[in-house]
Design goal:
Layout lengths: L2 H16 L4 E10 L2 E9 L6 H18 L6 E6 L10 H6 L4 E7 L5 E11 L3 E6 L2 E6 L3 E6 L4
Helix pairs in contact: 1-2
């Protein structure tokens, strides 16, 4: 599969996702079992349901058939990155505003401490977390791992 086809699939997927308040996290296309496997990871604030993934799959499949983007057989998989996916990029943190997070943060002593609470804001080099002790600004350079938390 060439980059032009990947770009075409992405161009078809973006408006379908946008109208549902979703965004594309990752798009991969790989040969599998004699056909092409198109995999989309999608997310939105508050998460994505299985039903929403199925709807996107159906709409994208129809758009790809109409646009005749791929010659031959292919499968489409649409899924959410999941709760255990680490937050790494500023875009990941932006999507998680208003949600509970668990961060492992480096301390001046060279250790790691766990910080948990609601993500209030994302700044260019830091995040603001509402903890039980009040708001805390954490430099992104000190965050070792960050994940969404089911409960804190």
């Amino acid at each position: 599969m060439d980059d032009t086809q990947v770009s075409q699939i992405q161009a078809l997927a973006e408006p379908i996702l946008s109208e549902r308040g979703m965004e594309l996290v990752e798009l991969t296309c790989r040969p599998q079992g004699g056909q092409l496997h198109v995999r989309l990871l999608v997310d939105r604030s508050g998460g994505v349901t299985i039903q929403q993934c199925a709807q996107v799959n159906q709409r994208l499949g129809a758009a790809m058939e109409t646009g005749q983007v791929i010659e031959g057989g292919y499968t489409i998989e649409v899924s959410s990155p999941g709760l255990d996916r680490p937050l790494v990029t500023p875009r990941d943190f932006q999507r998680a505003i208003g949600e509970e997070l668990r961060l492992d943060v480096a301390t001046p002593e060279g250790r790691t401490k766990e910080v948990g609470g609601m993500l209030l804001a994302v700044q260019p080099d830091a995040v603001v977390i509402k903890t039980a002790d009040g708001n805390m600004t954490v430099l992104l350079s000190l965050v070792r791992t960050a994940k969404k938390a089911l409960r804190w």
